[in-house]
Design a protein that fits this description.
Chain lengths: ~240, ~240
């Protein structure tokens, strides 16, 4: 690992984004627009208050998952990955470069969504703001890490995009949004227990409710952070210097 | 340290399989330093696989590949080898200059290298253009420029002149000769026989075997023809008759 190379990689990915303004606009605006849509669909402050934090969880994850898996797949198919694997760049330099660049994007995304939610949409925040931002960012990084990992199993863009519902929908269904986790069938609850999104959603709810940020919150944060490291490690293992 | 008389590349009994098919059937050869070695043969004969094995990005089934005194793929070699893939490995959504700056940072090459290699491949006036808007020939020159960053000791170029007009092709071969004169070792693959005449040494590959490993002059006299294309055909006939 080499900090210069990691930073150069993050800067390179930012330049790629700068040259693709429409993607940046979609990444930053779509979550906010959907939250606004949700506000008017619910038309009821209480249901909205329950759902908004969930969207703040899901969106950074979803968008980062998609852009990262497509981005790495493009590196594989364009031959730039092979060029990098023949260079002094370490696998983690590349992964952290993606994580950093998309982490910045996630910040913008969350900042806009939160600003609009807290002002225009009267979302009430009982506690302070930083736990919310922390959890959103962790979710974005989790999306990045899982996107990198899944892209290793996709040969084409079609396959890469199909991984999104595979990874996403079970986590949303089992994440305690539709049915509280302790009311699920035992097997499903076990599955739910090993999905990182369950912890992210719980942490987000605690952050929005302004509950005392006690052991539960930090346990959830630790689980999500651990999942990020695990996915990054596995992702790094799938980037081979030698290929068939 | 190795002496300058040692070969730049030494390959022994290299076998590579891709899927169920054996692509290279135990090839052995050496590449001398400071020369241009042409790697010739029809499409699909194993040129790219051989170059990838020398770079150290190919999984090999057997044999030894030694590059500049180290086993192929050693971390020390990653700064000393320049590698240009057959398909231009360039970010299409970055300008030529942004591409070069990034790879220069990865290789630890000085920033001034960017202007130098732009000049060398004749892309200075296109440096601000996005990769995706370049023509095929410009794209492959941009990819070639990346491999020249950091002044590598060994350059492995997979079909660097495909799709270029004769003037540009001549300019690039002049560049290659200049590099060889400065002591750089080049391995250049091509399926165009007329490029062979510009190499000091030729490796002719067919169906995963080495058909010939000689200088262009020696090949011409051995096969009794001035035309290398014809020489290639005679080598195949010779092999089939044997």
């Amino acid at each position: 690992m080499n900090a210069t190379i990691t930073l150069a990689t993050a800067r390179r990915i930012m330049s790629q984004l700068r040259n693709d303004r429409r993607t940046v606009a979609l990444m930053v605006l779509v979550p906010t627009l959907v939250i606004v849509l949700l506000y008017y669909v619910m038309d009821d402050q209480r249901s909205f208050a329950a759902w908004a934090p969930v969207l703040l969880c899901v969106f950074p994850f979803l968008v980062m998952f998609l852009v990262t898996s497509i981005g790495t797949l493009r590196e594989r198919t364009s031959g730039t990955l092979e060029r990098l694997m023949a260079s002094p760049l370490a696998q983690l330099d590349l992964l952290l470069g993606y994580g950093l660049a998309f982490g910045v994007m996630a910040c913008l995304q969350v900042a806009l969504a939160l600003t609009v939610s807290l002002t225009w949409l009267d979302m009430r925040l009982a506690g302070s703001l930083w736990p919310l931002v922390l959890v959103s960012l962790l979710n974005a990084l989790l999306g990045t890490a899982l996107g990198l990992l899944c892209s290793a199993f996709a040969r084409t863009e079609f396959q890469a995009v199909q991984f999104m519902p595979v990874v996403m929908i079970p986590q949303i269904l089992l994440g305690g949004i539709l049915v509280p986790r302790d009311q699920m069938a035992t097997v499903l609850e076990w599955v739910s227990n090993v999905l990182p999104m369950s912890y992210a959603i719980e942490a987000m709810k605690l952050a929005v409710m302004g509950a005392d940020l006690n052991g539960d919150f930090w346990r959830d944060v630790a689980v999500v952070a651990g999942s990020i490291l695990l996915a990054l490690g596995l992702g790094a293992a799938t980037l081979r210097r030698r290929t068939p | 340290m190795m002496s300058s008389n040692d070969p730049a590349i030494s390959v022994r009994d290299l076998r590579v399989t891709r899927g169920a098919r054996e692509v290279l059937h135990g090839v052995s050869f050496q590449v001398p330093r400071g020369q241009i070695t042409g790697l010739l043969g029809p499409s699909g004969c194993g040129k790219t696989t051989l170059i990838r094995a020398i770079v150290g990005v190919q999984i090999v089934a057997g044999g030894q590949v030694t590059v500049l005194g180290e086993p192929a793929g050693s971390p020390d070699l990653r700064r000393t080898i320049g590698y240009s893939t057959q398909n231009p490995a360039i970010y299409r959504d970055l300008s030529v200059q942004e591409n070069l700056r990034y790879f220069a940072a990865v290789l630890g090459a000085p920033r001034s290298d960017v202007d130098r290699v732009l000049e060398e491949v004749g892309l200075t006036e296109h440096r601000r253009q996005l990769g995706g808007t370049l023509s095929g020939g410009q794209l492959s020159r941009a990819s070639l420029a990346v491999s020249l960053l950091g002044s590598p000791e060994l350059l492995l170029l997979d079909e660097p002149t495909v799709g270029l007009d004769p003037v540009l092709r001549k300019e690039l071969w002049t560049l290659f000769s200049g590099l060889a004169d400065r002591g750089v070792t080049l391995v250049v693959s091509s399926h165009v026989m007329d490029e062979a005449a510009r190499c000091q040494r030729l490796l002719i590959l067919r169906d995963g075997d080495i058909l010939a490993d000689d200088s262009p002059e020696a090949l011409r006299s051995r096969t009794g023809t001035m035309d290398l294309e014809e020489a290639f055909l005679r080598l195949i006939e010779e092999r089939l008759a044997a």
